[in-house]
Design brief:
mainly alpha
């Protein structure tokens, strides 16, 4: 009787091991599929970003290659007036 129970326990254990192995393999397959889909989406997003950068550059809206606007140099008279008005912040008027 004890041997029968032992054999049943061993068979149940084998089935559980096979079931776990099958579940593990299924999870691995699903994870690989999800990773592949994520990589495809990231690649597509990168393509879209690159296309947008090209459009911006070619449209002339990019700051690349452009010089910043020249700031007007303050004359001594403007400086004296600004200081006499207690406006000590640069360029605010």
């Amino acid at each position: 009787m004890a041997e029968e129970e032992s054999n049943e326990n061993e068979e149940t254990q084998k089935e559980d091991d096979e079931g776990s192995s099958s579940k593990s393999e299924e999870l691995v397959i699903r994870a690989e599929k999800a990773a592949s889909e994520l990589k495809e989406q990231n690649d597509r997003r990168e393509e879209i970003i690159n296309e947008e950068r090209v459009r911006t550059t070619l449209s002339g809206k990019s700051d690349a290659g452009q010089e910043p606007p020249m700031q007007k140099e303050e004359t001594p008279a403007e400086y004296a007036e600004r200081v006499s008005n207690n406006n000590l912040k640069d360029g605010e008027g």
